[in-house]
Structures are given as C-alpha cells and as structure tokens.
Amino acid sequence: MIRFDGAGKRHPDGTVAVEGLDLDVPTGRTTVLVGPSGCGKTTLLRMVNRMVEPTSGRVLLDGTDVAELDPAKLRRGIGYVIQQAGLFPHRRVIDNIATVPYLLGWDRKKARARAAELLDLVGLAPETAKRYPFQLSGGQQQRVGVARALAADPPVLLMDEPFSAVDPVVRAGLQEELLRLQSELHKTVLFVTHDIEEAVRLGDQVVVLRERGRIAQLADPHTLLTAPADADVAAFLGRDRGLRGLGLRPAAAVAVRPIPGGPGDRAAQGSPDGHGVRFGGWELTLDDRRRPIGWIDRHATGAALEPAPGFRPDTDTLRAALDAAVLSPAGIAVALDADGRAIGTADREAVLAALAARRPSPVDLATPGRSAGTEPSPTGPAGTGPAGTGSFDARGAGPGKAGADAVTTPATPATPATPVTPATASGAVETDGAGGGR
Question: What pTM did the predictor assign?
C-alpha cells in the first residue's frame, strides 16, 4: 500500500503545491488522481519515487517512509510510465524494455528474454524488438513504455498521463490493454489524468483534487458519477456524467431478442445475398456466416445498405448498446458474439428498460471475467464527500479488469432479462410491422 501521511510540498518561493494530503492507495488496485491543471496530481505521484521530496509529512510504501530508502534502489523497484513514453532513441526496443533489468545486474540473455515476454504481453509483434523508437507509432511507443515499466515485475506502477499524447482511437486501445494487464498482474497503480472519462474507466477509486492537492471527493466511479460531493465536483464531471455512468453497467442486462434460424436461414427474400431478417419496414441482411451486412429500407425503391451497428452483450456496456441502437437507421442494435455473428437484436426501448430496471449494485457492475470487489474503498478525509462503497469494473469494451481474487473466482455477470422468444418478440421476424423506425 502507498500512504500519503500529511504529505505536503512548498516551493522555495513560498508557493504551495500540495497541502497536507492524507490518502491511502490500496494494494493491487488502480487509484486515479484527476483534477484541473496545477492541482498537484503529478507532484503527488512523483513523491512516491522521490523525484519530488515532500517538505512536510511522509509518503509510506508498505509501511516504510520512502525518505529512508536509497532513491536509485527505490526507483528500480517502481514502474514509471510518462507522457510520450520517454524511450531512449539510440536503443532498440528490446534494450529499452530491458533497461531496469540491466541496472539490476541481470545478464543480457535473461534481460532480453524478459523483454521478449513483455512484448507479447503488451500486444506487440516479436519483430518490433529490433526496431528503434522512431520506427514505431505513438501507440506502439506507449506500449513499449508500459513494458519497460513492468520489466523487473515491480509491485507498484506510477503512470503520469501516459496516453495523453496519442489519438482517441489509439488511446482507447491502450486503456483496454491496461485493463487487461491489470486483470492479470494486479499491480498497485497510481494513475494521473486530466480526463474524467479515462478516470472512471480505469480507476477502482478516483480521487478528485482541488488546488493545493486537497481532496474534493474520493469515491468509486459509480458513486462519483451519481453522487458528486458538491457543485464544483459536479461541474468538473460535466453535464454528461449520466451517460458516462452507462459505461459502468454491463450490456448483459439488455433483453436480447434471438434471431431465428441458423446459418443459411432464408427468413427474408430480396436482400443482396438472400439472407436476412425483417423488422417491420426494415430488413437486416446477413452474410453466409450470419455477420451483419447492413439494413435495407424495404419501403424505399433502390435503397442502399445502411450500417448495422452492433454490440457484444458479454463484454460491452449499456452505453455501447444504447449507442448502437441510436445510430441504427432502424432503431435496433444487433447483438454479436465473439466472432461478429448476429445472435439477436435489441431496440432502444429494450436498452432503456434495462436502464430503468433498478439502480445497479457493485456486483452488477462487474465486467464478465472479473469478480466484483467486495471490500469497500477507503473512506476519504472528513468533509471530502462520499467515499466509495465497493470496487467494480465495467469500463468499456474488451476484457475486464480484475481484482486480486479474479484468477480463482470467476465473475458472475449481471443476470440478463429473460430473452423474448420469436413467438413473442415484437418485430423479431416478419410480423405485423412492429419494430424500430427512424
């Protein structure tokens, strides 16, 4: 555990960067520091590895004051990931990753073998090992940075806005990769970001900071979004915090209407390949593997195919399901399996029904593949607003993040509503015209 015990930082000119912070960072969990520029996020993070020395209070690592430890040895035992990776330009990727093992005295063969393992762990091809940083994309460089931080298997990982310098698509992929890594490795992660979206997706607990490093609220993501401590926190979270909250609830709660028939089912004629299912005035066309091709407006002469947005009930969130239904020209989202095949549909009303069913508990919010944490989040200092009531994780598409018990205790996803059978589903096959519309 990392503990800030009255930690403060006053610069020589009298400027106070951090004013007496008390905060516990739980072992094996991800704690995210978020707040406006200049609130002390990075200063606090750098106190942990003594790149910034506190002028008051202490920073404890597993009960030991870091001020009593040799800075070089301390840093070699802590993973550190920064903006734009910070790779050595004159070293190949494999030697960049092996930097800390080399410093710890590992022989070259062992260090490079470890680096090769980590390349695979962070999703990079083996041939990447021989390249130089300038030959990599921004996203690949950040993956190398994460691999380098993990090379000596440190228990603590400090991440200072590591994904801020890449485009949104790459950033989402890196976030998903971090969730997957944490589900396997269970590191104690202290993560700094300006982005509240990133904070609630990645964090087991989120710490919203004011000026001088004062805690405005410490809470789990769901509590933060649904019960901000005050008007300032609510304003910082933004007016769309309700939509962000949908990203914490699994799509398994949506009642998916099964698509009748199997491969080769010719439920509807007139689609480009002869395979399709009709929903009122719309027809969903499928290929021979039952993957969605698109929607056709049956009432429009010579209508072109329109996109058929989909979602995965087992890994996606309610936000993804609602987004797919809203973007669909038919008002119907296509439920997909892991291979992209259509297994059913859900209209906007089905998604809204899942939203209205009840307020989720932390157990409901567990991503498939991870057990919801049962231990409460640490309580914040008096007057800092609601503390978290539990750890939970549906942070978006892709593999879920895991707590320490996830390896031995499979998650139980939220119980989905009973699927409606074709006989009772409104618009599941060619019917009386029920189904979504424009």
Answer: 0.68
pLDDT of the residue at 358: 56
Question: Residues of the chain with pLDDT > 70: what percent?
Answer: 77
Is residue 306 classed as helix, strand or coil in its secondary structure? strand
User: In which region does residue 161 sit, left (phi positive, over 0), alpha (psi from -120 to 50) or beta (all else)?
Assistant: left
Residues 63, 67, 71: CA angle, nearest 5 degrees? 110
Nearest to 363 by CA among 325, 389, 330, 328: 389
Matching residue, tokens 């009930």: 313
Q: What's the rounded Cα separation, in Å, for the pair 419 and 135? A: 50
- Say which amino acid occupies 5: D
Q: Residue 126 phi/psi, 5° resolution?
A: -55, -35
307: which DSSP letter? -
- Using DSSP's 3-state secondary structure scheme, residue 406 falls into coil
Residue 352 token pair: 């809204």
Pairing relation of β-strands 78-81 and 257-258? unpaired
First to last CA, the chain: 53
Query: For residues 220 and 228, what is the distance between their CA atoms, to the nearest angstrom?
Result: 11
155 pLDDT exceeds 80?
yes
DSSP per residue over 67-118, as a string? GGS-HHHHHHTEEEE-TTTT--TTS-HHHHHTHHHHHTT--HHHHHHHHHHH
Helix, strand, coil % in the chain, rounded to nearest 5: 30, 20, 50
Query: What are 187-230's pLDDT values in tens digits?
Result: 999 999 988 888 998 999 999 999 999 999 999 998 998 899 99
Helical spans, DSSP H, in 203-293: 221-226, 231-237, 241-246
Could you tell me which residues come within 8 angstroms of residue 235 by beta carbon, excluding any fewer than 6 positions away? none
SS3 419: coil
Length of the chain in terms of residues written: 438
294 bridge partner residues: 285
3-state secondary structure of 189: strand
Distance CA 243, CA 258 (A): 27
Sheet bearing 276-279, strands edge to edge: 276-279, 282-286, 292-297
Pairing of strands 156-160, 188-193: parallel
